[in-house]
Amino acid sequence: MKxxxxxxxxxxxxxxxxxxxxxxxxIDGIDAEIFVVDNHSKDDTVEYLxxxxxxxxxxxxxxxxxxxxxxxxxxxxxxxEYVLLINPDTFVGENTIKECLDFxxxxxxxxxxxxxxxxxxxxxxxxxxxxxxTPMTSFYKMxxxxxxxxxxxxxxxxxxxxxxxxxxxxxxxxxGAFMMMRKTALDKVGLLDExxxxxxxxIDLSYRLMTEGYDNWxxxxxxxxYKGESTQKxxxxxxxxxxxxxxxxxxxxxxxxxxxxYIPIKTAIYVxxxxxxxxxxxxxxxxxxxxxxxxxxxxxxxxxIGKVNSLEACRQIANRNGLIAEYIESDEYSNKLGHxxxxxxxxNDNKVYAVYDITAxxxxxxxxxxxxxxxxxxxxxxxxxxxxxxxxxxxxxS
Length: 398
What we know:
The protein has helices at 13-26, 45-52, 66-75, 96-106, 135-143, 145-148, 183-189, 201-211, 236-254, 259-288, 308-321, 363-372; strands at 3-9, 32-38, 56-60, 82-86, 90-92, 110-118, 169-171, 178-182, 215-225, 299-306, 324-329, 350-357, 378-384, 389-391, 396-397. It is an alpha/beta fold. It folds into three domains: 3-225, Spore Coat Polysaccharide Biosynthesis Protein SpsA, Chain A, CATH 3.90.550.10; 236-288; 295-397, Rossmann fold. The strands form two sheets. Strands 1, 2, 3, 4, 5, 6, 7, 8 and 9 form a nine-stranded mixed sheet that branches. Strands 11-10-12-13-14-15 form a six-stranded mixed sheet, with helices on both faces. Strand 10 (299-306), helix 11 and strand 11 (324-329) form a beta-alpha-beta unit. Helix 5 runs parallel beside helix 10. The two termini are 38 Å apart. Mean pLDDT is 87; it is low at 229-235. This is Glycosyltransferase family 2 protein. InterPro entries: Glyco_trans_2-like (IPR001173), Nucleotide-diphossugar_trans (IPR029044). Residues 4-189 form the Glycosyltransferase 2-like domain. It holds the Pfam family Glycos_transf_2.
């Protein structure tokens, strides 16, 4: 078998449905298997997959085992030449997986591969390419120097921003949101470290691949990553787990460094975590008191783009939910550039979701459209006719 795909899911049934739909399009003609490991979801994910998706190999855990352990459960059952770990809050282009496999086949020393992840406005996610979080690189990130000087050779090393986005290049850390690995390399370096509950395990595994002499690569193939729909980033638990992962990695790989370096970095992590917790607490208090920023009070408009039948279904959903909406009949053959050719009114008072009918536009076309002209006020939305639902980064509407 050529490829084994593993998706770890936790309470994201509808995002998972879209992810699976895009993957099945992308593996057409490829000898592949798909594993979904459900971490004890409460949203009927297991029941849905059991009843409707017999192509998926389902592992239904009775506990939330975290990302690393859940992936390892499936990895042990795989038979593919390559293993792909992919988040459920993503979708891929129709040719994305084939591009990745072709690249891995032609680069025999490649241990792992990542690609260009897009944010919901079409901009490139910096997490697509990362450098090793050495103590100094981590310090530049934690202190804000990386954000202030993102293209600086030293200060910007965390996100490797000096690299070209449009050509393949060697990187150090691959994001676990989309991480394709050669199975023989994985057998050599070992599975994900289960000391990491969530976050950090991709950094650790990438580091071990390099330590064993493999190359990690970035290629400019695209996916959308909703960035966190499978986690609650506004929760105290998120902050605890995220910064605990940083400490685990630091202890595991850099505890041998001198006291003068290890202790300041550890202190910086605790300080950063404390500030994050204070911000969460402040935001929660403001919400309880009814205080919202002007940005949070912006109007939301939905522009539906697709075939006649889909537009009518979207109209019914919009009316039922009281949405401000506009409807445009189009497909990628009549209008390859989609919403970028339309006069969409998006400004500081309005946020727009350009919602594409996936029977009128391929996933890869939607990604290309948004990446050509990113706009922070115009965000990706999709309409899935087979499930009669609208998916955005913030909600599922049906």
